[in-house]
Amino acid sequence: MFKEDPEANPSHYVDGVSSELDPKYFDDDGRPKRTGTIWTTSSHIITAVIGSGVLSLAWAVAQLGWIAGPIAMILFSLVTLYTSSMLAECYRYGDPIYGKRSYTFVDAVRNILGGIQYKVCGTIQYLYLYGSAIGYSIAAPISMMEMKRSRCLHKSGGKDACSFSTNPYMIGFGILEIFVSQIPEFHETWWLSVIAAVMSFVYSIIGVFLVTAQVAANGTVKGTLTGGGAEIVSTTKKVWGIFQAIGNIAFAYSYSQILIEIQDTIRNPPSEVKTMKAATVLSVAVTTSFYMLCGCMGYAAFGEQAPGNLLTGFGMYNPSWVIDVANIAVIIHLVGAYQVYVQPVFAFIEKGAAKKWPQTKVEHKIFSGYNLNLFRIVWRTIFVIVTTFVAMLIPFFNDVLGFLGAVGFWPLTVFFPVEMYIVQKQIPKWSSKWIVMEIISLLCFIASAVAALGSIASIANDLKTYKAFSS
Fold first, then answer.
1. 93: which strand partners?
2. Which residues have a Cβ under 8 Å from the Cβ of 15 and sit 6 or more positions away?
3. In sequence order, what DSSP letters do the residues of 171-215 get, joined into one string?
4. Per DSSP, what are the bridge partners of residue 372?
5. C-alpha of 212 from chain center
6. Which of 114, 197, 358, 368 could form a disulfide with 43 if both were Cys (CB 3.0 to 4.6 A apart)?
7. Which pLDDT tens digit goes with each residue over 311-353?
């Protein structure tokens, strides 16, 4: 049978795939029809953004004070909104309607920038995503342990210190993620993201309620204009604390590294760009509102004593079930957030393995709706085990969040989106728009650099009293 040459009649082909496939079931690239809407997209974004980072914001504001703290959160939200809008324009290379799709962030960099930048981006992105999985493997067990600690404190009337190791809880969280990680691909995690997004609202609202009640009980608003945590005893340590706080806020707003993966779940029409931009505005507005409430009200409630994890400051709260509900919501949310961040890593490894060893793609139908893939089960299980082991080795919650935010924010949230947008829109070099974009990129680079220094200094300080597998 005669087979049409794509080059002979390119108008019938998109991404090298025949456009004559039934559009009811397939998109223009031959893949199964995408079904994402503004609501599922917003759920993915909120799940990715409102994570463990929100719990550290009261501590971050405590380092910065009443002036710099809120300003820093607003500035990071505006930068994230601006660069995410630019990145959304880079989903299709060339023509915004019929251009070549980019299925991942690194695909977009390869299609638009190419060369060494593609390799650098891939290295940074996947290390960041893996680091986020470590961060969530630390954060979720803290909430698990906090429920046990709360019961212990109530039982002893606050006389017992109630210190426990998080290691058993890390192992438990890892076992749970081994099962959840068998979800085949990112597109199929939409229901988990919806549940996780709802949970993020639950514990954020409870957190706001708790700190507001604490402010009322105190009868005063704590904190100072210049900030400084309880452990700050010198100017040098205060500077390191400020730098680390910047990294924590940056981490709390990071999701650009999986924006393209999220955008690749959106149905068309309307255009993916239009839906993504609307979802970004909605999501960033919602998350910033919660961030400001949790961060600022947490600082107002605890002042310089603001804990690194907001919920750990209410161990003696009555009724205790309120804290339990909040911590359960955190755990469920982080189960989903873990998957949102690691599914791109899974896809990258499995795609590479399939090219080299085609037999790794073989699936065995077990029951309706699920096919067993031995390679997927084995390698993903090993991934979760290694991630859990690393989390048990370095259980420094704030330090890990600050370092991840510092290392990942500038290149993934600012630099690559800006450079791709410049090429995609053919913005002339040294034009006013080009200069503004490059200045924003430079300022964000400086913020990331100082945040990395602060986190490294804090990690070095923690290592002085560190004992392996002791948390």
1. 100
2. 28, 29, 30, 100, 101
3. HHHHHHHHHHTTS--GGGGHHHHHHHHHHHHHHHHHHHHHHHHHH
4. 364
5. 27
6. 197
7. 777 666 667 788 888 889 988 988 988 888 888 889 888 888 8
